[in-house]
């Protein structure tokens, strides 16, 4: 594989937008990219055996898939952002999130592990077997989430409850405010939820490879959120919402236009097992328009 130096430096904006040139290194199902073998050769693993600093140091040696800012690919960039938080704040990522986000938002059940006294509330996770039956993928009794990870990930690994998630979404819906406390400045949140893809492009025009937690047509991407730009193109009803999904098929979105947020929680991996997220959105907006068929 022939490489060259990038023409422009990678920025934090590129990392948050997944336009940095990094990939997920072959860890996503059904997606193979030319640089993925380099991730394995560098010893990059999702096993959680490295600290975030060690993980990012290895990642820095891997060639980029494309010029920063020129394309879009879901990637390990959010882990880099997690380490940036550690460097800038001088705190471990889990401590920073607890003090700056989870405690102010009254999210007592959210963290990177589940204590023994809460295990009876921890849901099992399933995956689809070749015969299309469901089989146990993560048993709460033996789950790796019983033990705090060596390196909390900026890209995933949190466990929590619907109520905790609702408090987070309420803050986003209320322009960064929660119970009278401003946690994110309104202009910053507005900036985060705008489409930052080059030239106002959609994911369909910018994405490399086939993995995304959303339909790409009519969808833009901001600083950590996808956003609906053209409802007709992406086959849904609402526009102006921002959202994302999770590995275990979870989904949330916030719609400032309709003054609502929606949280869908399940425990089924991978997230591509069933294509139901668009259906859920259409059911919700159908109900808002007075539909009675669902």
Give a structural overview.
With 294 residues, this protein is an alpha+beta fold. The chain folds into 2 domains: 12-89, no CATH class; 163-294, Beta-lactamase, CATH 3.40.710.10. It contains 10 helices and 10 strands. Strands 5-6-7-8-9 form a 5-stranded antiparallel β-sheet. A 3-stranded mixed β-sheet has the order 2-1-10, with no helix packed on it. Strand 5 and strand 6 form a beta hairpin. Helix 3 packs across helix 4 (77-89).
What is the fold's blueprint, element by element?
Elements: H1 12-17, H2 36-41, H3 52-59, H4 77-89, H5 93-102, E1 125-128, E2 134-138, H6 162-173, E3 177-178, E4 181-182, H7 186-192, H8 203-206, E5 219-221, E6 226-228, H9 231-234, E7 242-245, E8 251-255, E9 260-264, E10 268-269, H10 277-288
Helix pairs in contact: 3-4
Summary keywords:
294 residues, Beta-lactamase, 3-stranded mixed β-sheet, globular
